[in-house]
Amino acid sequence: MTDPRDAELRRPTERMPRVNEPMAHVNEPMPRRVNEQVVEEVVERDDYRRVRTVRAVCAVIDVLCWMFAIVLFVHIFLVIAEANTTNGFFQFVSGWADGITLGLDGLFTPENAKVATLLNEGLAAVLWLVIGALLTSLITRLALPVDHRRAWYRRTVRP
User: Fold this and answer.
1) Which DSSP state fits 140?
2) Confidence band of 123 (pLDDT split at 50, 70, 90)
3) What are 61-67's contacts with CB under 8 Å, separation 24+?
4) Digit-coded pLDDT (tens) for 73-103
5) What are the E-state strand segments in the chain?
6) pTM for the full model?
7) CA angle 96, 61, 80 (to 5 degrees)
8) Which residues pair with 33 in a beta bridge?
């Protein structure tokens, strides 16, 4: 009895280019074998620029939202650790944090200023991360072609 893979193992192999040999065939599409005949396919993607632009915009949104959240977390840490408020770094971080709190400065008003900072700016930091995730998800779902979107799979068990 013969193994069906024997025919595949006996087919001629393609010659590999040498190290210093000019590679004129690099930009050519890879040939595909169908019934021992070479069939070449040329696949052109006209949506490449759109995909690249959408992914770049989403990356910028992610970086900005994470940067805002990190600034708020650093400010929370500096306030809880009782850092010197006259220090230039503290004032720089505090100035940034005041501008990106999304208006949540006085939402929670506990007696302790540290707890108030933790709650108000912590909520703002979490909201920045949620806003970034929602924006990038919405942009990719609306602007990317179907075959470039993230795939959501559901596992089903069939009898």
Assistant:
1) H
2) very high
3) 61/132, 61/135, 61/136, 61/139, 62/132, 62/136, 64/132, 65/128, 65/129, 65/131, 65/132, 65/133, 65/135, 66/128, 66/129, 66/132
4) 999 999 999 999 999 999 999 999 999 999 8
5) 31-34, 37-40
6) 0.65
7) 35
8) 38
